[in-house]
Amino acid sequence: MSRLEKAIVSMVEVFEEYATKDDKNRQLSGTELAELMKKELASSEFHGKVEPAVLQEAMTNLDKNHDGEINFREFSMFLATLARGYYRARNKGNKGKPDKPE
């Protein structure tokens, strides 16, 4: 698989792993989301690049339908917000030129 295909598969697998811990297999509860974030967003590389304000923005915008649960659509928008924040932080000072792949 390509890197992008692996990223998509990983995104789905992570959601399913945490969402299936209770009876609502297609939703993340607040507890499941907290566990996911603690375990899956723990590296210093990530926290060094994504500003706390971006994390807060992502969290604030999570539950779009205000049902107290996070569905896959909301989760994917959350990841997109985190990716944008990471991209901006990674490319700060590059005047719009992204870093070259390693």
UniProtKB/TrEMBL annotation:
Domain EF-hand: 50-85
Pfam families registered for this protein in UniProt: EF-hand_1, S_100
One GO term describing the cellular component: perinuclear region of cytoplasm
InterPro entries: EF-hand-dom_pair, EF_Hand_1_Ca_BS, EF_hand_dom, S-100_dom, S100_Ca-bd_sub
This protein's UniProt keywords: Calcium, Metal-binding
Molecular function (Gene Ontology), one example: calcium-dependent protein binding
Coiled-coil stretches noted in the UniProt entry, renumbered to this chain: none
UniProt keyword Lipid biosynthesis present: no
PANTHER family: S100 CALCIUM-BINDING PROTEIN, S100 CALCIUM-BINDING PROTEIN W
Protein name as it appears in the record: S100 calcium binding protein W
Source organism per UniProt: Salvelinus namaycush
